[in-house]
Amino acid sequence: MAQDFPDTIIIIGAGVFGLSTALAVARHHPSTKVTVIDRHTPPVQDGTSVDTSKILRPDYVDKVYEKLADKAQALIKNDPELQPHYFERGFTFCTDGKDGEMNTLWEQMFDNIKVTQPAAKWNELKDPGTVYRHLHGEDSDSTPTSELAGPRMWMKGYTSKRCATVNAEGMIKVYYDRCCQQPSINFVLGTPVDRLLYGADSCVDGVVLEDGRALRAQTTVLATGAWSSRLVNLDHQMHANAVGIAYIKLSPEEYEKYKDIACHTNLVTGVNLFTPLGGYLKILRRTAGLRNTVTLKDPKDPSKTCQASYPLTKMDDPTQTLSAEMEQSIRDEMREILPQFANHPFAQTKFCWLEQTTNGEFLICPHPKHNNLHLATGGSLHGWKFLPLLGEFVVDSISGKLEDVLVRKWSWESKTDAKQNKFGFMTPGEPREFQQVIGHLSQL
Ligand SMILES: Cc1cc2nc3c(=O)[nH]c(=O)nc-3n(C[C@H](O)[C@H](O)[C@H](O)COP(=O)(O)OP(=O)(O)OC[C@H]3O[C@@H](n4cnc5c(N)ncnc54)[C@H](O)[C@@H]3O)c2cc1C
């Protein structure tokens, strides 16, 4: 049912969810006063939304996400300020070809693109040699099996040419600058929100910052991503998870050779290599999840505590690095698919934290227990690509005008059944504790 739009809104969090929402409110309700609060100034360096690169990939089996991702990509591609950060180089999806959930997903995705896209938009890579030559050039030879640490995993694939890589930090900067130009948007940066401010009947009246300042608004939007469990009890709807990332500095010659390659991912192993940007090759490994379970102040009753997974980023702990085990597993796989870089030093490593809902669907909905609190989060390893649309969804949700199909997908209630997050290609299995896999640099 349509509802009156609030005169004042606080948005906590200036990542893709928060900035997109601020702009959409300014566009549709210019008289509404918007206050965006963040721990840091955007682009927030340890925020999930900020990195050298993200991928725009409409290749979903889910028809709703496929259509929305297609629409969002067209908006980004045709936006003159975002265009310089947009590189349409394609995305190659690979598999080991053995029976299993991720191989089934690969087959569904490939079947889908064959019927929805013209042949010019994709090409099949039928065997490991073709996958390798597609990446390294027609005259290249794949690594002999005897030199691999285990069985060959990049057995076949297909390239979806419509996918693109973007400079995420560059685009976030454009969005932040746009927000700053809006007379109705005000930023409060540098001091985290300590807690929500509750009024009568568990109604949220605003926020209290760490320095004690109280800010009030008719509606508060929680766009705090992986950090959300500090401010609301998530009742296990969503967990903070980490993904390990390594960067390799390429020589000018290497960069020239590889700068136009497609992103490549192996859905079974979780390794993802990106189209190089700014002279660096980025490689990450998705897993079933890495959680940093800690004791936090209970968001509703500060006299109590609760257990939740909470981010620990390189800004919190500059000594953190990938564990020897994780580094080895990435290098072992590089020996198959990127052998010439397998022994290159990692110029940088980090863990990127994400907010993973139980089923990979976003959380864009009113909070079921607290009036005037709206959730705009749950990106679950695939939310970035919807940048221009996220705010539209949040505004529609606040107004009670969100399409029924999206209300059902993104509601609090839909998060009760735990399922593998196939939208974000998380690999199957049980999450591990972050502290067991993190390494530390001994000297800084
Ligand atoms: C490794 C990795 C790769 C990914 N790759 C892709 C991809 O290729 N394509 C894609 O579509 N998606 C991708 N995703 C998913 C996508 O990046 C996320 O869905 C999206 O960025 C989440 O945005 P957000 O706004 O929720 O979170 P964030 O960007 O983290 O924003 C949350 C903000 O809230 C602020 N905040 C938190 N707590 C407080 C507080 N108490 N007070 C004040 N401020 C606070 C934080 O500082 C932060 O800036 C990837 C995710 C990861 C982790």
UniProtKB/TrEMBL annotation:
Pfam families: DAO. The keyword Oxidoreductase applies. Its cofactor is FAD. Residues 9-396 form the FAD dependent oxidoreductase domain. InterPro entries: FAD-dep_OxRdtase, FAD/NAD-bd_sf, MTOX. GO terms for molecular function: flavin adenine dinucleotide binding; L-pipecolate oxidase activity; proline dehydrogenase activity; sarcosine oxidase activity. Keywords: FAD, Flavoprotein, Oxidoreductase. It comes from the Eukaryota. PANTHER family: PEROXISOMAL SARCOSINE OXIDASE. Belongs to the MSOX/MTOX family. This is FAD dependent oxidoreductase domain-containing protein.
